[in-house]
């Protein structure tokens, strides 16, 4: 079988070992993303680029965005209440509930705030859905490259 011969010849060919260099030999360090500690201080987005061919421009890439609350809601948080004159009452305005020091982009104390919060949540879900679609398309491209190189 030709495919088996090619695979065995490639694995036993000593010249291939001379042409293959490790990441350390090339002065590159692979990113470790398998532990939460490695993500401390991570950027809000980064690009994963995978070389899929022999030439420099034969690569596929995908942008990966952080999907934590801070990045999904774009730095929004509890707004400080406007300063009032002492003893003055503002009609229809209630003080913001205590959040225990954690700022939250979601506020459901009034119907208007709840509707605005729903819009923010829908936007965040859309961002996560778009990210999943992009990652799925990237996976499909990787599988296509792998299938086209199998012989």
UniProtKB/TrEMBL annotation:
Keywords of the record: Cell projection, Cilium, Flagellum
Pfam families given in the database record: Flg_bb_rod
Low complexity: compositionally biased ranges: 81-96
Positions of region (Disordered): 81-104
All copies of domain Flagellar basal body rod protein N-terminal, residue ranges: 48-77
Listed InterPro entries: Flag_bb_rod_N
Gene3D superfamilies: f41 fragment of flagellin, N-terminal domain
SUPFAM superfamilies per record: Phase 1 flagellin (SSF64518)
Protein name as it appears in the record: Flagellin
Organism expressing this protein natively: Borrelia lonestari
Lineage: Bacteria, Pseudomonadati, Spirochaetota, Spirochaetia, Spirochaetales
């Amino acid at each position: 079988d030709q495919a088996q011969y090619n695979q065995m010849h490639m694995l036993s060919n000593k010249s291939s070992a001379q042409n293959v260099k490790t990441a350390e030999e090339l002065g590159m360090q692979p990113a470790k993303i398998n532990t939460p500690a490695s993500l401390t201080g991570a950027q809000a987005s980064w690009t994963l680029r995978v070389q899929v061919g022999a030439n420099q421009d034969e690569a596929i890439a995908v942008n990966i965005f952080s999907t934590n609350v801070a990045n999904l809601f774009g730095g929004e948080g509890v707004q400080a209440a406007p300063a009032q004159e002492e003893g003055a009452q503002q009609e229809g305005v209630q003080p913001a509930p205590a959040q225990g020091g954690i700022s939250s982009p979601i506020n459901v104390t009034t119907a208007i705030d709840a509707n605005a919060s729903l819009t923010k949540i829908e936007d965040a879900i859309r961002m996560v859905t778009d990210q999943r679609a992009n990652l799925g398309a990237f996976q499909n491209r990787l599988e296509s490259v792998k299938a086209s190189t199998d012989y």
